[in-house]
Amino acid sequence: MSGFAAIDLGDGRVKVAIPDGNGNPVTMPFSDGGLYLPSAIFFNSDGSVIYGLEALNLGLAEPERLVINWKRKMGTDQVLYRSDDGTEYRACDIARLLLEEVARNFESRTGELLTKAAISVPAIYIDSKKEQTKQAGEALDIEVVCMPHEPTAALFGNKVHDRCDGLRLVIDVGSSTTDVSIGEKSGNNIAIKNTHGDPNLGGQDFSTKLREMVLERFEQKHGFRPDAKKHPLAYQELFQRIEQVKHSLSTRDQASVVVSCEGSVFNTVITREEFERITVDELKSVMDCVDQTLKEAGVSADDILEIIPVGGPSQMPMMADAIERRFGKKPTCHCEPHFAVALGNVIAGRLEVERNGRSFEVGGAKLPPLSLSARDVTSHPIGVAVLADGNERRLINAVVLDKGVPIPSDQTHPFTLAQPGQTDAKIEVLQGKDAAPYGECLLLGHFELTGMTPVFDRPHRVDVRLKFDHNGMLNASAYDPASGISADLEIDYTKTKESQKVT
After folding, report:
1. CA–CA separation, 259 vs 214, rounded Å?
2. What CA–CA distance (Å, rounded) separates 136 from 131?
3. R_g over Cα of the chain
4. I need a labelling partner for 317 at 20 to 30 A (CA). Which of 28, 252, 254, 428 fits?
5. Would you say 283 and 309 are in contact if contact means Cβ atoms under 8 Å apart?
6. Parallel, antiparallel, or unpaired for β 264-271 and 254-261?
7. Which tens digits make up the pLDDT trace of 276-320?
8. Distance CA 28, CA 463 (A)
């Protein structure tokens, strides 16, 4: 037998939901009885792999064998771990290993093989990150039915489709990313009006500020600072204790943290007020994402019916206070915020199966179609590199598919070749704002049109077709009408620089 799972592959925790006999989403426990798996991998010297909480505990003794906070590296070729036999592991490999553990647990819990999954991704993910997420599932022979945007899935998880019409704003602050989306529920339809976020802002940035404050206090008393390379054991222990303190400060006014390094033991108390003071910039960045989302959607704070926080960091009291100050109302939750995305992925997966003309099955029984539709939007503008007017050397981005265009989308745009009589052309596809300089954009891929018929008596135009599929992934082609020559997009993801600014 085979089965379906909905997976929230978080940087801090992996959560899984499955449909019950009626197709309703329910969370699936892991082997230890917990409802989530810490997103940690420990590599034993014998080549075996340990997952979750046990991996974190083993990492206290051998932190060099522990991999955590890997998700920001998705879409890159950065090596996160090299095993004793020389095998290299990148973020996509860590994702695959975690999905493998999910599949084992799924089979143990349900007695079925995991063959289909909806795996959500941050709304601000670029194509390379989505592609590696998909490949991680496919490497295990799991059909990735769809990759819903996390805030969109959270709307389903909060059962917005069963409540009154209106605009909802989702603030999804995860461990490593921040997404903000505005969804409009109208009848049986949920449509995303706009999404905005920051791929380098999340709960771990709040933790970094907290850890830095503790290290400064330790140094003031003992004259030296624990270092990740010089004192890996002490540093890893501090890393985990800081996470515990951060969680404690969501329910308590103060919490203690103990640091032990080179025989020096240090105990300090952190108050919630101190924590909120040192992370004021991070909180402002989250709320800036909120304001930008409202601005791009063309709606005001008064237009928003509900504000739905998603993810662990969004539960911090400072976040709730900031939301209430901005909107004049408290955030609302209709399910446990940690599991909203996983639960919503069940609905998103079911809708995608039905969209493709198939019946959604649970335990061999076919479920009736949902009387529900959903529409997402693109999170980045996509265009083509062209010469700026009056400047033969400066390249800029000419946007073809703008940010906020409904998914799926399909548009064709003609472009004129730079020189008369050209027989060859390299057309580069960029992600970035319209008219943005080439160097400020992300290169996604290129077309190579060769052997074209030269044209001298009129402008030589080629058609560039850009298309987003239902996962918001880019497909593109170029066509020369004069010669009938065409080319498909060649992906340049390996050239992506992690530090490159993406708009």
Report:
1. 8
2. 9
3. 24
4. 28
5. no
6. antiparallel
7. 999 999 999 999 999 999 999 999 999 999 999 998 888 899 999
8. 48
35 in a structural domain: yes
- Token digits for 88? 């290299």
Residue with tokens 């709606």: 299
Residues with Cβ < 8 Å from 495, sequence gap 6 or more? 443
Same-domain check for residues 125 and 208: no
List the CATH number of the domain containing 28.
Answer: 3.30.420.40
- With cut-offs at 50, 70 and 90, classify the pLDDT of residue 392: low
Give yes or no: residues 309 and 359 share one domain.
no
Kindly state whether residue 503 falls inside one of the protein's structural domains.
no
Q: DSSP character for 437?
A: B
How many other β-carbons are positioned within 10 Å of the β-carbon of residue 45?
9
How many angstroms separate the CA atoms of 129 and 430, rounded? Answer: 16
Q: Which domain holds residue 113?
A: 1-162+335-376
By the 8 A CB rule, do 286 and 173 touch? yes
Number of neighbours of residue 116 by Cβ within 10 angstroms: 20
What are the tens digits of pLDDT across the range 10-22?
999 999 999 998 8
Examine the domain organization and report whether 364 and 343 are in the same domain: yes
Q: Under a CB-based contact definition with an 8 Å cutoff, are residues 320 and 345 in contact? A: no
Query: Quick one: pLDDT band at residue 390, thresholds 50, 70, 90?
Result: low
| CA 312 to each of CA 26, 174, 309, 327: distance values in angstroms, whole numbers, following the listed order | 19, 7, 9, 21
**Spatial CA neighbour of 218 closest among 236, 233, 240, 234:** 234
With H, G, I as helix, E, B as strand and everything else as coil, classify residue 141: coil
- Say whether both 94 and 123 belong to one domain: yes
What is the DSSP track for 298-316?
A: T--GGGEEEEEEESSGGGS
Indicate if 149 and 174 belong to the same structural domain: no
Name the 3-class secondary structure at 216. Answer: helix
The tokens describing 366, both together, are 């076919």
Distance of alpha carbon 174 from alpha carbon 282, whole angstroms? 13
